[in-house]
Amino acid sequence: MASRDDIVIEITPQVLLKAYACGIFPMAESADDAALYWIEPQHRGILPLDAVHIPRRLARSLRTSPFTVKIDTDIEAIIDGCAASRPGRRSTWINERIRILYSQLFELGHCHTVEVWDGERLIGGLYGVALNGAFFGDSMFSRTRDASKIALVYLAARLAQGGFILLDTQFVTDHLRQFGTVEVNREEFHHLLEQALQVDANFHALPEDASEDDVLSVLASRSSQPD
User: Rounded to two decimals, what is the model's pTM?
Assistant: First the structure.
Protein backbone atom coordinates (compact mmCIF):
# COMPACT_ATOMS: atom_id res chain seq x y z
CA MET A 1 0.00 0.00 0.00
CA ALA A 2 1.31 3.47 -0.88
CA SER A 3 2.19 5.78 1.98
CA ARG A 4 0.73 9.27 2.27
CA ASP A 5 4.03 10.69 0.99
CA ASP A 6 3.91 8.37 -2.02
CA ILE A 7 0.43 9.61 -2.85
CA VAL A 8 1.56 13.23 -2.66
CA ILE A 9 4.45 12.59 -5.05
CA GLU A 10 2.21 10.82 -7.56
CA ILE A 11 -0.20 13.75 -7.97
CA THR A 12 0.62 15.67 -11.14
CA PRO A 13 -1.32 18.41 -12.97
CA GLN A 14 -2.60 15.75 -15.37
CA VAL A 15 -3.81 13.57 -12.50
CA LEU A 16 -5.45 16.63 -10.98
CA LEU A 17 -7.37 17.35 -14.18
CA LYS A 18 -8.56 13.75 -14.32
CA ALA A 19 -9.73 14.07 -10.72
CA TYR A 20 -11.75 17.19 -11.53
CA ALA A 21 -13.29 15.35 -14.49
CA CYS A 22 -14.41 12.68 -12.00
CA GLY A 23 -15.92 15.25 -9.63
CA ILE A 24 -13.24 15.21 -6.93
CA PHE A 25 -10.73 17.80 -5.80
CA PRO A 26 -7.79 17.94 -3.36
CA MET A 27 -7.43 19.68 -0.02
CA ALA A 28 -4.87 19.59 2.77
CA GLU A 29 -5.58 19.49 6.48
CA SER A 30 -3.45 22.59 6.97
CA ALA A 31 -0.66 24.60 5.37
CA ASP A 32 1.87 22.52 7.31
CA ASP A 33 0.49 19.13 6.25
CA ALA A 34 2.35 17.78 3.21
CA ALA A 35 -0.42 15.33 2.27
CA LEU A 36 -3.38 15.95 0.00
CA TYR A 37 -6.78 14.36 0.45
CA TRP A 38 -9.37 13.79 -2.26
CA ILE A 39 -12.73 15.36 -1.49
CA GLU A 40 -16.07 14.42 -3.08
CA PRO A 41 -18.91 16.10 -1.17
CA GLN A 42 -22.22 14.32 -0.87
CA HIS A 43 -23.83 17.64 -1.74
CA ARG A 44 -22.27 20.19 -4.08
CA GLY A 45 -22.71 23.92 -4.64
CA ILE A 46 -23.27 25.21 -8.16
CA LEU A 47 -24.05 28.69 -9.45
CA PRO A 48 -26.36 28.42 -12.49
CA LEU A 49 -25.02 30.81 -15.10
CA ASP A 50 -28.50 31.54 -16.43
CA ALA A 51 -29.75 32.61 -13.00
CA VAL A 52 -26.98 34.73 -11.46
CA HIS A 53 -28.51 37.22 -9.02
CA ILE A 54 -26.64 40.47 -8.44
CA PRO A 55 -27.84 42.45 -5.41
CA ARG A 56 -28.73 46.02 -6.30
CA ARG A 57 -26.18 47.50 -3.92
CA LEU A 58 -23.44 45.40 -5.50
CA ALA A 59 -24.55 46.44 -9.01
CA ARG A 60 -24.19 50.08 -7.93
CA SER A 61 -20.79 49.30 -6.42
CA LEU A 62 -19.67 47.67 -9.66
CA ARG A 63 -20.53 50.79 -11.63
CA THR A 64 -18.97 53.28 -9.22
CA SER A 65 -15.95 51.55 -7.72
CA PRO A 66 -12.47 52.69 -8.79
CA PHE A 67 -11.19 49.12 -8.83
CA THR A 68 -9.64 47.40 -11.84
CA VAL A 69 -10.34 43.76 -12.66
CA LYS A 70 -7.56 41.76 -14.29
CA ILE A 71 -7.42 38.21 -15.57
CA ASP A 72 -4.54 35.73 -15.16
CA THR A 73 -1.79 38.19 -14.21
CA ASP A 74 -0.61 37.01 -10.77
CA ILE A 75 -1.45 33.47 -9.68
CA GLU A 76 1.02 33.55 -6.78
CA ALA A 77 -0.48 36.70 -5.26
CA ILE A 78 -3.99 35.28 -5.59
CA ILE A 79 -3.03 32.03 -3.88
CA ASP A 80 -1.25 34.03 -1.16
CA GLY A 81 -4.43 36.02 -0.59
CA CYS A 82 -6.58 32.90 -0.46
CA ALA A 83 -4.19 31.21 1.96
CA ALA A 84 -3.83 34.15 4.34
CA SER A 85 -5.42 34.02 7.77
CA ARG A 86 -8.36 36.33 8.37
CA PRO A 87 -10.99 36.95 11.05
CA GLY A 88 -12.82 33.73 11.78
CA ARG A 89 -10.22 31.58 10.02
CA ARG A 90 -6.70 31.27 11.37
CA SER A 91 -5.59 28.26 9.33
CA THR A 92 -5.75 27.36 5.66
CA TRP A 93 -6.08 24.18 3.62
CA ILE A 94 -3.65 25.53 1.00
CA ASN A 95 -0.28 23.86 1.51
CA GLU A 96 2.91 24.07 -0.55
CA ARG A 97 1.88 21.16 -2.78
CA ILE A 98 -1.40 22.93 -3.62
CA ARG A 99 0.56 26.05 -4.53
CA ILE A 100 2.87 24.13 -6.84
CA LEU A 101 0.14 22.09 -8.54
CA TYR A 102 -2.12 25.03 -9.28
CA SER A 103 0.77 27.15 -10.46
CA GLN A 104 1.58 24.34 -12.88
CA LEU A 105 -2.03 24.19 -14.01
CA PHE A 106 -1.87 27.95 -14.53
CA GLU A 107 1.13 27.53 -16.82
CA LEU A 108 -0.80 24.86 -18.74
CA GLY A 109 -3.75 27.23 -19.21
CA HIS A 110 -6.24 25.33 -17.03
CA CYS A 111 -6.05 27.39 -13.84
CA HIS A 112 -7.33 30.96 -14.04
CA THR A 113 -7.48 33.98 -11.78
CA VAL A 114 -9.86 36.90 -11.53
CA GLU A 115 -8.09 39.71 -9.69
CA VAL A 116 -9.44 42.95 -8.22
CA TRP A 117 -6.88 45.73 -7.95
CA ASP A 118 -6.95 49.12 -6.29
CA GLY A 119 -4.12 50.82 -8.10
CA GLU A 120 -1.07 48.66 -7.47
CA ARG A 121 -2.67 46.82 -4.53
CA LEU A 122 -4.39 43.46 -4.95
CA ILE A 123 -7.52 43.68 -2.79
CA GLY A 124 -9.34 40.49 -3.70
CA GLY A 125 -9.91 37.77 -6.21
CA LEU A 126 -10.31 34.09 -6.86
CA TYR A 127 -8.82 31.16 -8.72
CA GLY A 128 -10.19 27.98 -10.19
CA VAL A 129 -9.84 25.34 -12.86
CA ALA A 130 -11.39 25.36 -16.34
CA LEU A 131 -12.02 22.04 -18.04
CA ASN A 132 -14.10 22.03 -21.23
CA GLY A 133 -17.44 23.63 -20.30
CA ALA A 134 -16.94 23.36 -16.53
CA PHE A 135 -15.25 25.79 -14.18
CA PHE A 136 -14.33 24.63 -10.68
CA GLY A 137 -14.02 27.52 -8.25
CA ASP A 138 -11.40 26.71 -5.65
CA SER A 139 -10.93 29.70 -3.38
CA MET A 140 -11.52 33.44 -3.10
CA PHE A 141 -10.53 36.24 -0.75
CA SER A 142 -11.26 39.88 -0.06
CA ARG A 143 -9.25 42.59 1.68
CA THR A 144 -11.82 45.28 0.92
CA ARG A 145 -15.59 45.21 1.03
CA ASP A 146 -17.13 43.69 -2.11
CA ALA A 147 -13.79 42.75 -3.73
CA SER A 148 -14.44 39.00 -3.83
CA LYS A 149 -18.05 39.63 -4.87
CA ILE A 150 -16.87 41.74 -7.79
CA ALA A 151 -14.46 38.96 -8.78
CA LEU A 152 -17.27 36.41 -8.71
CA VAL A 153 -19.54 38.57 -10.88
CA TYR A 154 -16.77 39.07 -13.42
CA LEU A 155 -16.07 35.33 -13.39
CA ALA A 156 -19.71 34.44 -13.97
CA ALA A 157 -19.93 36.87 -16.91
CA ARG A 158 -16.72 35.52 -18.41
CA LEU A 159 -17.99 31.95 -18.17
CA ALA A 160 -21.40 32.86 -19.59
CA GLN A 161 -19.82 34.69 -22.50
CA GLY A 162 -17.43 31.82 -23.14
CA GLY A 163 -20.09 29.12 -23.36
CA PHE A 164 -19.45 27.39 -20.02
CA ILE A 165 -22.45 25.59 -18.59
CA LEU A 166 -21.24 24.60 -15.10
CA LEU A 167 -19.80 26.76 -12.33
CA ASP A 168 -18.90 24.51 -9.40
CA THR A 169 -18.54 26.33 -6.07
CA GLN A 170 -17.78 23.09 -4.18
CA PHE A 171 -19.88 24.09 -1.18
CA VAL A 172 -22.74 26.50 -0.46
CA THR A 173 -22.14 29.44 1.87
CA ASP A 174 -24.25 32.48 2.73
CA HIS A 175 -21.77 34.53 0.70
CA LEU A 176 -22.43 32.40 -2.39
CA ARG A 177 -26.14 31.84 -1.79
CA GLN A 178 -26.93 35.53 -2.35
CA PHE A 179 -25.80 35.14 -5.98
CA GLY A 180 -28.12 32.21 -6.62
CA THR A 181 -25.86 29.32 -5.67
CA VAL A 182 -27.84 26.15 -5.06
CA GLU A 183 -27.04 22.74 -3.65
CA VAL A 184 -27.32 19.56 -5.69
CA ASN A 185 -26.68 15.98 -4.71
CA ARG A 186 -23.73 13.99 -5.96
CA GLU A 187 -25.69 12.16 -8.64
CA GLU A 188 -27.09 15.38 -10.11
CA PHE A 189 -23.69 17.05 -10.01
CA HIS A 190 -22.13 14.19 -11.96
CA HIS A 191 -24.88 14.45 -14.56
CA LEU A 192 -24.21 18.19 -14.96
CA LEU A 193 -20.47 17.60 -15.05
CA GLU A 194 -20.80 14.93 -17.73
CA GLN A 195 -22.73 17.39 -19.90
CA ALA A 196 -20.22 20.19 -19.30
CA LEU A 197 -17.26 18.03 -20.27
CA GLN A 198 -18.79 17.65 -23.73
CA VAL A 199 -18.75 21.42 -24.29
CA ASP A 200 -15.92 23.35 -25.92
CA ALA A 201 -15.85 26.62 -23.97
CA ASN A 202 -13.52 29.62 -24.13
CA PHE A 203 -12.44 31.37 -20.93
CA HIS A 204 -11.09 34.32 -22.91
CA ALA A 205 -14.18 35.02 -25.03
CA LEU A 206 -14.98 38.10 -22.94
CA PRO A 207 -12.42 40.88 -23.57
CA GLU A 208 -10.12 41.43 -20.61
CA ASP A 209 -10.97 45.13 -20.61
CA ALA A 210 -14.73 44.49 -20.47
CA SER A 211 -16.50 47.29 -18.61
CA GLU A 212 -18.84 46.89 -15.65
CA ASP A 213 -21.80 47.54 -17.96
CA ASP A 214 -20.51 44.85 -20.35
CA VAL A 215 -20.33 42.37 -17.49
CA LEU A 216 -23.82 43.17 -16.21
CA SER A 217 -25.21 43.03 -19.75
CA VAL A 218 -23.79 39.55 -20.37
CA LEU A 219 -25.36 38.20 -17.19
CA ALA A 220 -28.69 39.94 -17.84
CA SER A 221 -28.85 38.41 -21.31
CA ARG A 222 -28.35 34.92 -19.85
CA SER A 223 -30.65 35.34 -16.88
CA SER A 224 -34.00 33.59 -16.81
CA GLN A 225 -35.05 35.72 -13.87
CA PRO A 226 -36.60 39.20 -13.92
CA ASP A 227 -34.20 42.06 -13.15
Answer: 0.91
